[in-house]
Amino acid sequence: NAGVTQTPKFQVLKTGQSMTLQCAQDMNHNSMYWYRQDPGMGLRLIYYSASEGTTDKGEVPNGYNVSRLNKREFSLRLESAAPSQTSVYFCASSDGPWGNQPQHFGDGTRLSIL
Amino acid sequence: RKEVEQDPGPFNVPEGATVAFNCTYSNSASQSFFWYRQDCRKEPKLLMSVYSSGNEDGRFTAQLNRASQYISLLIRDSKLSDSATYLCVVNTNQAGTALIFGKGTTLSVSS
User: Fold this and answer.
1) CA A104 to CA A35: how far, in whole Å?
2) What is the pLDDT at residue A20?
């Protein structure tokens, strides 16, 4: 049982390049999330999808877009990467959007933008 | 007041010690509480949920005080492998932005 799978695990981009981070979960969860984690900042929510077909902004959505492709997959796109987007990105999923159940995390994508 | 506050530490303890972490939260409507563990450069992993009556899982005990909006985690007989950052997590009952993560308390256990 893989849980939450993220690809790629590492990526280096140049400023202005675009890329998509992929996330898939096999737990049949309804809700999915994208976070970024920077030193001293804790986890910050970028976007979330409460259920298939819906997406909403979190705390730090600027510079990102998302797609909930189906129930399993939730992708995060950087259209024009900036050095400030250098971070570790985590995808998570949970049974529902209300926080009554814990979220399960993928092992992260480490992204550096030069 | 920050939504979830934790002492960042680090807590440096010898093997076998008992250590306690505290966490306060600001949303009195919160209903669900969790402790996560995060190893260096790894993903957060659920350690345990926190129930109103308090709960124990082996060497780990979690307590909740709703009146004071305070959560604690007690680790007994610390092991080297307990070295990690411990995140206090509280729900908001708001769809999507449902879980608020504290910044974590770092524990270092030495031999």
Assistant:
1) 12
2) 97
Chain B: residue nearest A40 by CA?
A: B103
Task: Look up residue A59 and give its DSSP letter.
Answer: S
Could you give the strand order of the β-sheet that contains B4-6, starting from the edge strand earlier in sequence? Answer: B4-6, B19-25, B70-75, B60-65, B55-57
CA distance A107 to A78: 19
pLDDT at residue number A2: 79
Alpha helices in chain B (DSSP H): none
Taking the CA of residue B97 and the nearest CA in chain A, the distance in Å comes to 7
Which residues, at least 6 apart from A55, have a Cβ–Cβ distance to it below 8 Å? Answer: A47, A48, A49, A66, A67, A68
Which B-chain residues 72-111 have CB contacts (< 8 A) with chain A? 87, 89, 91-99, 101-104
Torsions phi, psi of A83, nearest 5?
A: -55, -30
Q: Kindly list the residues from chain A whose CB atom is less than 8 angstroms away from the CB atom of residue B99.
A: 99, 102-103
Interface contact B57, partner A, CB < 8 A:
no
pLDDT tens column, A31-48: 999 999 998 888 999 999
